[in-house]
Write a structure and sequence with these properties.
Elements: H1 4-11, H2 23-28, H3 42-54, H4 59-72, H5 74-83, H6 85-92, H7 96-102, H8 104-107, E1 114-117, H9 124-128, E2 138-142, H10 159-172, E3 179-185, H11 191-194, H12 209-226, E4 231-234, H13 239-249, E5 255-257, H14 258-278, E6 287-290, H15 294-311, H16 315-318, E7 322-326, E8 329-330, H17 355-362, E9 366-369, H18 379-388, E10 393-396, H19 408-414, E11 420-421, E12 430-432, E13 435-437, H20 448-458, H21 465-477, H22 496-513, H23 524-531
Helix pairs in contact: 3-4, 3-5, 4-5, 4-7, 5-6, 10-20, 14-15, 14-21, 17-18, 20-22, 21-22, 22-23
Amino acid sequence: MHNRPAFELLHDPFLTKGTAFTEAERQEHHLEGLLPPTVETLDEQVERVLNQLDRWDNDLERYMHLRAVQDRNRTLFYRVLTSDPERFLPLVYTPTVGDACEEFGHILTRPHGVYLPVTSQGRVKEILGNWGSRDVRFIVVTDGSRILGLGDLGASGMGIPIGKLALYTTCAGVPPELTLPITLDVGTDNEEFINDPMYAGLRQKRCDDDTYYAFVDEFVQAVQDLFPECCIQFEDFSMNHAAPLLAKYRDQVCCFNDDIQGTAGVALAGIHAACQAKGESISEQRILFLGAGSAGTGIAELIVESICVETGMPREEAMTHVRLFDINGLLVRSRTDLAPFQQPFAAEAEPCDDFVEAIRSFKPTGIIGVSTVHGAFNEQVIRAMGEVNARPLIFPYSNPTSRAECTAQEAYEWTGGRVLFGSGTPMPPVEHKGRTIKPSQGNNVYIFPAMGMAIFATGARHVPQEAFLTAAKSLAEQVPVSYFEDGMLYPSRAEIRAVSLKVAGAVARTLDEMGLNRHKAADWDARIAELAFVPEYR
């Protein structure tokens, strides 16, 4: 029989120090003989992980190795990630997490988080209660229906909540023991997965909407009962469910949808930064979207709200500053195929099914791609933007990289370097006119971890739109002026911890001013710094 206390301490990912247990600790906790005799520092353990990562042949293998470290030793995992965010964020999240989700059933080793199958309807609270802690402050939940730009991956979408919550801790210091990734397995319409013997989810078609909404409601209510201070982040839900779920729950419980609101916040931040670069106001911007799903309409809505708040412009007039284009062309009032959440964005304009023609007619200052169509911002599109703008905003936000509307190199080349650029996925350095430029990544990693830390610090009861307006403004204010010459609109990912904590402080003040906070602080920046998890052994 094992010496249970010693064995459990050694294998508890939140408490273990592995080879860093001192000789005194090994004696005290009866760990002698269970570890190699050499006592290492945390930094020496990090060096070993880095050495091991260099031995793998590709990023998916490196992702798998880092996930194994995460399951084994949380402190070491986060010390590795925070040692070089620019290197490791793309490994634990986009773009590598897309490959991991597609291969999830094949690379699954130790399950992580909670899987709630629709077949458990009526017992969701009981099953969710099997989680070992009652102090859960953040749940990232997906139903696997629209994973990144990859579509329906069913239960294999669990890689997304796991990755997102790793970024909560890495970027903004949210304590990892307070987080819980969840997948609502409501089936999948992905025949390839259903027929794959390695697929780990329910082998059935997605359930009907009545069953679906009842199941989600049971889940939301169970969270309120079990984890009363928890915030739910809805992640990668399909277009037809994402907006209705947010509309239903946003004023009932503490929740937000990262694809709608987080993406909107980071896009608005890029527009604010572009305004600084051009010496213009947001009311002078006109934005054309390629893609009119929940992400596109969410960004458009936040832009409109920002124009109204900052200039006093009537909403009806502010709405004329955004237009959306989908697979059937420009969203116009004469169309009869628009979903309810799209209808407010239908323009009083002639139908148009040519995106380049829409650019020449509307003369947008910026285009935002949320289409998941690789290469949709082709040379003709980008050159058209260059014709109507001295400094065009080009934002290919779809991810992973295989779904991006254009590359940074193409945007710089086809605008003669005049572009103001932000991509949703990391892109390699650009060589332009004898200079090497690191393209900006306008990924919502700059928004949702900071939002999480602000909610944790304040104990917010709800997450209002004003919080995302504040986050966008705070993020834009942290872009060095020197970046603008090279068309960069976001801070360096190497500085993401410091940037995120500043954004969190700004959001916390907004939540406090709105009276949505359970907790009080005289100095929110200081309180957040005090609460932030630091990966060190204690």
